[in-house]
Known about the structure:
heterodimer; A: about 110 residues; alpha+beta; Alpha-Beta Plaits; four-stranded antiparallel β-sheet; 2 helices; elongated; B: about 850 residues; Beta Polymerase, domain 2; Four Helix Bundle (Hemerythrin (Met), subunit A); 5 domains; 15 strands; about 55% helix
Amino acid sequence: MKLIKAIVRPNKVDDIKDALGKVNISGMTVTEVRGHGRQKGHTAIYRGKEYNVSLLPKMEVEVVVTDDLVEAAIQAIMGSARTGEIGDGRVFVIPVEHGYNIRTGERDVV
Amino acid sequence: MPVVSPVLVGPNTMSTAKARDLGTTEGRRRLTALLSAAREEFVVDVQRGAGGRVAHARFADHLDELIRQIVDAARTHTETPVAVAALGGYGRRTLCLQSDIDLLIVFDGRIGRPEERFVKSVLHPLWDLRLTVGHQVRVLKDFDQPERDNPEFLLALFDARLLAGDEAVFEPAQEKFRGSSVDCREEILEALLQLTEQRHEQSNYTIYQLEPDVKDSPGGLRDVVAARILLSFAETVTSDTMDRQRLDQAEDFLLRGRSVLHLATNRNLNVLSHDLQERVAERLRYQGAQPQQRVEALMGAYFRHARNVNRALDRAHRAAGPSARDTTRVALGLNLELTADGIGFVDRQQAAGDPASWLGVFEAAIDRRVPVSDDALSLFETYAARYTPLDYLPSSAERQRLRRFLRPRPGLYARLSEMHDCGLLPRLFPEFQAISYRVIRDFYHKYTVDEHTLLTVRGIERLLSPAQRSRERFSSLLGELRSPGLLVLALLFADVGKWKDDNHAEESVRMVQTVLDRLEVTPEGRQDVEFLIGQHLQMSRAAFRRDSEDPAVVRQFAALVGTEERLKMLCLMTVADVEAVSTETLTAWKEELLWRLYVDTYNHLTLGYGDEMIERGQAAVAALQATRPDDLTEAELARFLEGFPQRYLAFFDAVHIYRHARLSRDIHPDEVHLFLEQKGEVWELSVVTLDKPYLFSNISGVLSYFGMDILRGSAMTSPAGLVLDIFQFTDHEGFFRFNPDATPQFEKLLQDVVAGRQDVTELLQRKESGFRHRRGPRRVSPVVNFDNEHSQRYTVLEIVAQDALGLLYRISRVISRHGCDVDLVLISTEGNKAIDVFHLTKAAAKLSEPAQMALKEDLERMLEEGYETH
């Protein structure tokens, strides 16, 4: 079981959700985040004054999938989040030891 | 298992015979049966919708009996005199099915092992019955000194009620509580108000929750209790009989609702959630063919009771406060007076027959930062339905007054809420009635549509003194708006179309037409309000759902808003709208996205517009040609428009464009065709001429010479050399006001200067020294910035500086001295800040880096000159 964490452009979340749905992955957690990668922000000018925009608004999408679905999930995320421009984001894959359903107390079957 | 038939006994009956066998299985079974029977009786009441005050009290009485039996049995453990009392809701006999049992145990003597055994013997059977028990243990001597550091406990003692044990212990304890409540009046009051404030803050200070907590939300059960405590503190004799009755009625309603919630969830849960509203509506027998109608009837009743509680709480707060003794009445004229209660009428009867005077109460309340008096509100409540909108606004003066009333100021939300609560707002604007208490269930919204609308006004009002630093940037936009009242007007009606289930923005635009007619809003203002309402969802869509870093998205959004003024209004409207959804919706993340889209769009509108030229075949041009007056030929209009930036079409309506086209007719070198008109305090000068060096500088110099204070404007040059300059200015020195032949004088000098027959620099020499003299301390640090990126054709020069008479002339003189051509100019003034954007070329190309540096140096030097230093 893996936790897939993707940092993406805010407007790409719906596309990612649809793409994951197509490979039968329905559960996801979405969080508003701010940060920078290689972009390191940029300088904006408003009324002649420069200001540094170092932390850019992004969305973090988290999905936990069984090992056999990891590759499909990654491809779904990358395929739907890519524009080809700097700032498309990152995808991380992290191992998960166990998962539990709080309501039923059941442990996820891997 | 033997079945025990419980016998419910009255509150004052002590069945001591069986009390001592509670440690046995039989004894425990008897307690369980007693509790079950009490619950069953309560459930029967709840099922017939009668789980209110009487049912709660009866349930409390049965619990009293149960606890008496337990206490009686526990008495074997100690000889020390002891009293067991109920606190909180149990003390008030408003005990619900799943409520906590709050107990106070007081010993008249030291607490040793026997007393500890007594406490355990009381608590363990209650825990075994799966009751949630809160307990406080004290000795009588503890009450000698009130627990000033524990005001919540002092508050709880208000409701203490003896359940079992020695009256000889409870009575002196109670005497001491009462003494404490006098001695610690201020601490208790402060604690009560602080706890109330914290609760209200969590609910965003509004009763109009879509899923209210009947206990904790504003207007809920805790507020009923708070109002009663405050009334008990009130030193003056107030006419509170009505409030007490309304509190009783509200409490009964809220308790009936709560009992259904406890029964349905089997938990101490007090939130009237969407999924439980239908069940509560059904149990409380609200009528309606569909479940949704029954729910709306239930929620209508809930809001009415909550509003009564809220108002009673406010009144009780004032009655308990220091100003309650103030009986001063200050006459304010026009039948208005100021009392400790707020603004009201001197002659109630006269006011009742004069609805046009009612707005004056709200105006005076805002001006003096006080509420409207209860007496005035109840008058509106009684008489509002008798009048039509026309009765409230019989003449243009009243309509203008109402438009002025809507400008954002501290207190506007509170006064509009009062207007709404007393029923006046929907009478004044029947369009608003469509969304009164309107419930729309979705994942995000927390308030009814009408309250959401009023909260957007509060959001704008709060921007006047923002609590968070990140909001200051939006506050600055509010300060720059020319007609902030239009923004409030748009906010008030943006969601009236939500009475329909789809496409509410379009429906709202349709509905606002009658409002705009009634208020006699100017055609320009009307277009702005219609635009804002029609497009009020577009900025959040572009910012949150599209890639706002994509220049194409910014370009499209800029095309939608068209002007900086509309951009600012739409941005503020979006901030207020998102914030009003719930306290958590406008996150710093969303704020940042909105601000970025604002900045990128603003830059596109002011720095990047030079490359987007009007094209012959475009729809807007075709529309202009279609409605063209007979005196203008198609070719003439096309020739005039050719090469001007697209921005021109966004900023001027057809009437202005046709006028400008006529001015361009038969223009020759050195000629000036102009049109001058006054719009209120502001004059507008339109000048058409042919391009030549120093032209812009000369025209602005002439305005400066006559003492005109330029507020805003624009200048455009077509590739064919046709120049159109528009200036809006105020007649700073009264030249037009005091000179009957001012206009011909002005025209002649302008003609002479443009033709080179007069040197404006010479004319201004005396005046220029005057300007420097008048310049006070500098409040705006000058900024000179060049941008070679936003436009393909131009170097864009942006200057922000402290506004001063003649500033534009001096800036443009320096630019012209450097051999630059001024092709496009945007001029704006925001408070004491002048923001001017010039699109420049030099020898038909963008400025080189050294040319920019040299010009920047000279401009900065000029802008630094003449300020007082401190």
